Amino acid sequence: MISEKTKTRDRFASERAILPLLTSHFSRILFVTVVVSCPAHAGSVEEEALPWQDAHRFVEALETIRTQYAEPVDDETLINEAIRGMAAGLDRYSVYLAPAEYEQARIDALGRYEGIGVEVSRAAQGGYVVVAPFDGGPAARAGIQSGDLLLRANGVSLERADPAELDRILHGDPGSAVTLSVQRGEQPPFDVTLVREIIRIPSISGKTLPSGVRYARIAMFSDRSARDLAELLDDLDIKDDDVPGLIIDLRDNAGGVVEGAVDIADLFLDEGVIVSTSGRAPGQTFDYLAKPGGIAAGIPIVLLVNGGTASAAEIVAGALQDYDRATLFGTRTFGKGAVQTLIPLAGGGALKLTTAHYRTPSGSRIDSAGIVPDIEVAMADDAPKAAPTEDDALVQRAVEFLASPVAMKEGMQP
What we know:
By secondary structure, the protein is of the alpha+beta class. It has eleven helices and 19 strands.
């Protein structure tokens, strides 16, 4: 019979054997913990060091899985999945990216995206909810809508899939296919097969409507968005005296580059806070301020929003609404007011971590709450049209509003 003393000795020996592995993977984390706890680093996040009892419990669980799980699991897999689980347990946006996933994220950031063209977020009831399909992409062409629940991919349940795993499923070589099981409201689930392709999202497009109202569609924000919008509106003669109004369509705009959204809002504001961020780490709490000068002064503006208007798009909507510079039409926005920071880790992976939250100029927190439009207009199909005209019901309502005395008065707001 093996004595308890022998069992204890063997357990401690196993833990000592695995400590070098943990040190290799977690030395950076432990170092940061020590640094931010040191009084010499004023202004850093002040947290107590990780209690050794908790570290011991983690080591014990890891070693138990290594030695007693029915199938052998390599150490790298265990460590990666442990980090993945930590990130997934924080909120619906934070995620650990393995080296190959991190590289794909960097490629996407450069504007090359191979997949079905959809922005998703974890759903509270399991699976994933569509934030917005990308204009002109396979998902949009197939009729996928904001709010659709993704249940399965190629017959495999997505209920417990982490965001990085789903990303691998949705991305793929152009020409390859994926079949999604989709739930829309109370309707029975249905399957749709989408063929992946290279997605190129036109950031800004627009036209002059028959009424004379200028229309601008912003599909996603990039660092060029403000420049492109200013050039578009100049081409549309926005400075003409007889321009009755401007419609900016942010429906199904899932966000993009925050600075691009801030610059767009700054085009229509002369002063004040555009958006505030609040976080714990150094540099994560600050205000974006409007600069004097802009375009479309005195012209009334309507912003079109829906449940697919998210993240950076909500920054624009919140700022222009709070300063009474625009009237919001549509339905409540998605409510993704989280600042995501891509933090590289040793070994080639990275954390896509929520490091702060946005607040509108009035101090309202966007995350989970969204932005309620000034005039709520629920449509059976409120997605933006590829070539919008005044036949688009929401555009038509906006044009009618811009012709009213109320709109003209609001257009004169500073």
